[in-house]
Amino acid sequence: MTTTRARTADEVYCVSCGRPIPESAAFCTHCGASQSPGGQPPPPHYASPPPYGYGAPPPYATQQRYSVHGRDKWIAVVLAFFLGGFGIHKFYLGKTAQGFLYLLFFWTFIPWIVSFIEFIIYLLTPEDVFRAKYPYS
Ligand SMILES: [Zn+2]
């Protein structure tokens, strides 16, 4: 037996490797080469992105996530947790009026409860969303 068999009636030869493939196949079943140049999606085994450092940078480049110039989520989280009752996190986030309100009523312990809820909200907010929500003015 030879490795290369003759094509049957419903088969065509691959434009790339020359081996017989089904006529309806858009891509070679042996080498994956596209049989009709242009306008076809990449073959399955080429679908995964190339490894890092190969060709163009990945489309999900990280600079997009952190391009928003905003306040740091983790600073706000720490401030809300430890100094939330004094509204320090509000001052940090640029909400000065709210900060003074917290400061004025810290002895009622209500700001402590509110700031603890805010601490949880900050914690659950993705960093990029947080930066977008609290940009530097
Ligand atoms: Zn082929």
Q: How does this model look, in words?
A:
The chain has helices spanning 73-83, 88-92, 96-104, 110-124, 127-133, and strands at 11-13, 20-22. The protein is mainly alpha-helical and 137 residues long. The protein folds into two domains: 9-54, no CATH class; 73-133, no CATH class. A hairpin with a 6-residue loop joins β1 (11-13) and β2 (20-22). The longest helix has 15 residues, at 110-124. The chain is rod-shaped. Bound molecules: zinc ion. Residues 14, 16-17, 19, 28, 30-31, 33 line the site of zinc ion.
Question: What's this model, at a glance?
Answer:
The chain is mostly helical and 137 residues long.
First-residue to last-residue Cα separation: 76 Å
Bound compounds, each kind once, are: zinc ion
Which structural class should the secondary elements be placed in? Answer: mainly alpha
- For the residues shown, what is the average pLDDT? 82
Broad shape: rod-shaped
User: Could you give the order of the helices and strands?
Assistant: EEHHHHH
Individual helix count: 5
- Across the major sheet, the strand order is 1-2
Number of strands: 2
Low-confidence segments, ≥5 residues, pLDDT <50? none
Overall number of structural domains:
2
